[in-house]
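Researcher: Next entry in the queue.
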Amino acid sequence: MPSTPTVSAPKTTGLLSAIVVVAALGYFVDIYDLILFSIVRVQSLKDLGITAPEAITNQGLYLINMQMGGMLLGGILWGILGDKRGRLSVLFGSILIYSLANLANGFVQTIEQYAWLRLIAGIGLAGELGAGITLVAETLPKEKRGYGTMIVATVGVSGAMLAYWVGEILGWRNAYFVGGGLGLALLALRVGVYESGLFEQAKKSEVERGNFLTLFTNRARLARYTKCLLIGVPLWFVVGILITLAPEFSEALNITGPVTAGLAVFWCYFGLVFGDFASGTLSQLLRSRNRALQLFLVFCGLLVAVYLFAMRGVSPTVFYAVCFVLGISVGFWALFVTVAAEQFGTNLRATVATTAPNFARGSVILLVPLFQAMRGPLGLIGSAAVLGAVSLLIAFWAVSALPESFGKDLDYSEE
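Model: Structure for this entry, 415 residues:
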């Protein structure tokens, strides 16, 4: 239950303040580095001596799981630090770690080196979005929070398109060097970014901050947290399975020409740019986060069905067009993180806003073996259909069961 709000009003800022700009650019580099492996997966593995198609698929899934495992660990680490030490320390600390890890990725010579560096990069990548969204949500007026997080997401997801262009033009090793360099350059923008006033006020209170375990000691709080996690799973089903394994799905669907994972990721994330803009705007116009999320989940379900069952024998152009619209349909990522941040008090807000998206991303670790286990009896298409339907239905239920958070006053703590 929330405690009594603090007495003095915290400082608020504008939509184009340094805080919003740095959070947006940080997420841009975050997405660039996060998605880069999916884009360069095939070429990088071939250069490391993995040539058999089945081995490329299996080793690629192994490396994705290592990256996602790092994000699970990092989500807890950065979330706790965000509530104990501050949002800014996490924002810039995470950028530093994933930038250095991605620079090192450009030098790998073995699969094991690749795997451990993806784990370290995953730990770094886990902190930026949650800290950025929390900082923006706590420093913007409550009527503009949705627009602020929409800007962060719209700018951020376009980093995937830059990753595709750089990977295609400069090669996979140089693409990692560019990503690391962009992150280090971003650290120079720390000047002019100030800490959240709500966090500064929380520091002066006696309420315990950043205790991850308290999310599990209260039944109602745990239920809220679990529902927040479940909302983000469909996005990572789409990106982690349907889009990352686009070449494999294109073969099963008898697409008339070659399909690359890089282009599938490019078009999906191009769609995400429009989707995040639309979902954030829609939540403001409807004055409801939950209704906007429900509409997008239904839209996503329709597009997953089109991807799996209505594209047999089409051209690569049509396939990529569906990837683009599928990206629009899952463009509710920042809205999902905003809802998670708005559901909890200041002393646990960064913990939730950081762990929720990373646990949702980390769901790939469970989705992949489930997908592979069902692939034998159901086939590639059938396995994806079952997994997609279940994740979407559970997410829709989770949204419907959460309290509406639009316009909610965030100046309170969890007791």
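Model: The chain has 17 helices and no strands.
Researcher: Noted, moving on.
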